[in-house]
Amino acid sequence: MSVIEEVVEKIEDWKGKNISIQPLSGGLTNTNFKVEVDGVPYFVRVPGESTELLAIDRDNEYHNTKAAAQAGVAPKVLHHVPEYNVMVIEFLNGKTMSKDILNESGMPTRMAQTIKKLNQGPRFFSDFNMFRLTEYYLHLCKERHIRIPDGYLERMSTVGQIEKAMNVHPLATVPCNNDLLAENYIDDGKQLWLIDYEYSGNNDPTFELGNTCQEMQFSDSQIAEVCAAYFGEAVPDRIARMKLNMIMSDVGWGLWAAIQAKISTIDFDFWGWAEERWGRAVEKMDSVEFEGWLRDVQR
């Protein structure tokens, strides 16, 4: 039997019922399925190969997915099969978002409002820090001889500058998803839902905001709209924190993509993604605005 079939067999509530399993497209780390049990749909995700190397803690993910559901922004966890690291989740009848849709008028405000709802919910199991995750990924790449983008190590001093500047006036950490690319938003016509809590943890909220702005490639006016919708106004120090975290988003997730290029069995150009992200990070570090962002977060 396949892993998904073994998982289905393990769930007592489903025994003797009519079951159909349908693969879903879209996952970059795992394999996703829609499982219908006597006509009722469920979402089931089977972890990909070697995902523990990507610093995914499945206990953390399980706890945080339940907490996010309690906050009212994530679907409920209905079954847990820990020996397979599998959760059976409420199936959302909604539209998976794309970058184009989330760039439409009014969407940055809706995104910020949903993120704030998550951030104000129950505290998560553990913390998330992109500076520490970047160090871990770099160590893994060195240990396993994984190719990284050219010039990466030479820029680590700049990453150190960013962390030092942001630590002058640190923000209190809040529960964050930390990986809000377009496909992790679902719109059911009434609200936006946030899914996939593999990298979730308590974090600076401007990482959450900056990361999702970077994923959507938002303009300066859209970034200001997100900031105003979240904080009440688009003030320079908050914008600067978001901009520096946009850099850190590409620095860290670019390394993630380089590791995936080595270990993943999913058909996707991870190396191309790593180079694209690193190119964007370097462009921002070399921009005329960069020194201003460092100054603004320290004021």
Provide a brief overview of the structure.
This protein is an alpha+beta fold and 299 residues long. It has helices at residues 3-10, 58-71, 99-102, 107-119, 130-143, 156-166, 205-216, 220-231, 236-263, 270-285, 290-298; strands at 19-24, 31-37, 40-46, 77-81, 86-90, 95-96, 174-176, 185-187, 192-194, 201-203.
Description:
The protein folds into two domains: 3-90, Phosphorylase Kinase, domain 1, CATH 3.30.200.20; 96-298, Aminoglycoside 3'-phosphotransferase, Chain: A, domain 2 (Alpha-Beta Complex). The model has no long low-confidence stretch (mean pLDDT 95). It has eleven helices and ten strands. It has 299 residues and is an alpha+beta fold. Helix 4 packs parallel to helix 8 (220-231) and helix 6 runs parallel beside helix 11 (290-298). The strands form three sheets. The chain has a five-stranded antiparallel sheet, with helices on both faces. A three-stranded antiparallel sheet has the order 6-8-9, with helices on one face.
